[in-house]
Amino acid sequence: QVQLVESGGGSVQAGGSLRLSCAASGYTYSHNLMGWFRQAPGKEREGVAAIATGSGATFYADSVKGRFTISQDNTKKTVYLQMNRLKPEDTALYYCAANGGVISAYFWGYGFGYWGQGTQVTVSS
Fold it and tell me: What digits encode the pLDDT tens for the residues 46-56?
């Protein structure tokens, strides 16, 4: 079965940086789409960034453009989210996602149905 395992969350002060990692297994990694979503308490889950694993094309939410960078290591089937200049409003549970499966969220028109367990990011002011 598809497994997405995240790591790298934590607590940081505003202006700091964190890098999240997501290792995929049991998933046809090539020519697909991997992404990151987040959900803050009392808010809906929102797409943050995505990457087309074949072409390397990237997509970002306006709120993180210029601060976050999504990248991948195809050989390791791993996706990264480098988060710089973090703000308190970036505080959320961050989920790695892959397109396919039973679709439960969309980002940039792509449906995502595989999810990791989530990793907490907390940014203090």
Answer: 999 999 999 99
